[in-house]
Amino acid sequence: MRNALLWTAVYAGCASSLIMFATAGGATYIREGMAWTAREAQTAAVFFVQSITVSQIQNDYQNVQAPKSDKSKKKSTKSRYISDGEIRVLIVPGHQPEDGGTAFDGVYERDIVVDIAGALAELLAQDSHYEVMVARGKDTWNPVLQAYFDTRAADIKAFEQSQELLMESYLASGSILPQADHVYHNSASPSARLQLYGINKWASENTYDITLHLHLNDYARRRTGRVGTYDGFTIYVPERQYSNAEASIAIAEAIAARLNAYHATSTLPQEDAGVVEDQELIAIGTNNTADGAALLIEYGYIYEPQFQEPSVLPVAVADYAYATYLGLQDFFNNSIVPTFGSVSFPYDWSAVDAQKGESGPGIYALQAMLHRLGYYPPAGESFSECPVSGKSGLCTRRAIEAYQNAHGLETTGALGPKTREALERELTTP
């Protein structure tokens, strides 16, 4: 039905152009107009046909038989996401090596997301269903992509312009409806635009099934040196009229569910849905420039404690990567069990007291563990007020008190020998 409506809209828009051709000069113009209409209708059909579907990519995953060492079955020729090998995943750490992205108190988004990408790639490499490529490191782009940017710059720019013109024509004809309300995004620099459109074009040409863009968030405010108001994750996906939207949204929802198990959804208005559709982000295929599923994950705000505390950051990086991995496995109906959903615990809490102001991986693990047991955040609070951050405060104290009270322990709000012993007994197989 939806495709039929789109075809109707396309022909309606093109028919109006035929009237102009006829008015301009008779049969010759009408013949030319009819040819133009056919070309435009055919182009629009390609524009709207789903380039990848949920059932298609899930079936591809289930049908992978060959081990990674068997390159004879590697994807070579396929008709638009009919796979004969591994699920290809491109992980793109946001922004550029040594440039771009947000920063706060000496901590740089562009570096943290490289670490998350590396951890995620290692997890995916354990599953022979995946073939994984990471787009860049902290200093350089992947040589394959750098060569593509260097040698195909003119083609990339032509691709960008042609897709933009197509989008403008479909918006003008009503074939595609503009997004009424969307989150404001910063404009990309010319070099970043070239690279982002280049990644879309290269990934489509090389039949990548999933592209994951990894980011940390921030927002414009008067005093950028101070901790901001908003927190939490969000995942941007192509707006539902785009050809790669269905699979992108489904994958994003699976990953969001795993992230939401230990982290807040963004509190920024319009991002608070968790999974947010967008027509304008280049990374996820603005102007229908991406064939495969494409997601842009904002794991949290750069000023949040788990990104700012050096001793906590490595475990937070590992945890975000693990949640993303679990979400992908859930989407492919190959869930990892048993699992706590966090790599931060089990943990040796012998040196952790959880006094106010104490921070470190032990506190992060304690908060995550107490959450799993149902005590953190404490009653009446949310992850937004009481994040799994690795920093102890009133939220942690109240959660420990609730746990101690429920287990008949002395209510101190801090970790003592008996509370540690009780927690250790909880750490059985999930």
Structural description of this entry:
The protein has 3 domains: about 1-50; about 55-330, Aminopeptidase (3-Layer(aba) Sandwich); about 350-425, Muramoyl-pentapeptide Carboxypeptidase, domain 1 (Orthogonal Bundle), CATH 1.10.101.10. It contains 12 helices and 8 strands. The chain has helices spanning about 1-50, 55-65, 110-125, 145-150, 155-175, 190-205, 245-260, 305-310, 315-330, 360-375, 395-405, 415-425; strands at about 85-95, 105, 105-110, 130-135, 210-215, 235-240, 275-280, 295-300. Helix 5 crosses helix 6. The longest helix has about 45 residues, at about 1-50. Residues about 1-45 and about 70-85 have low confidence and may be disordered. GO terms for molecular function: N-acetylmuramoyl-L-alanine amidase activity. One of its GO terms (biological process) is peptidoglycan catabolic process. This is MurNAc-LAA domain-containing protein. It holds the Pfam family Amidase_3.
Secondary structure layout plus pairing:
Elements: H1 2-48, H2 54-63, E1 87-93, E2 103-104, E3 107-108, H3 109-125, E4 130-134, H4 143-151, H5 153-173, H6 190-205, E5 210-217, E6 234-238, H7 245-259, E7 275-278, E8 293-301, H8 305-308, H9 313-331, H10 361-373, H11 394-406, H12 417-426
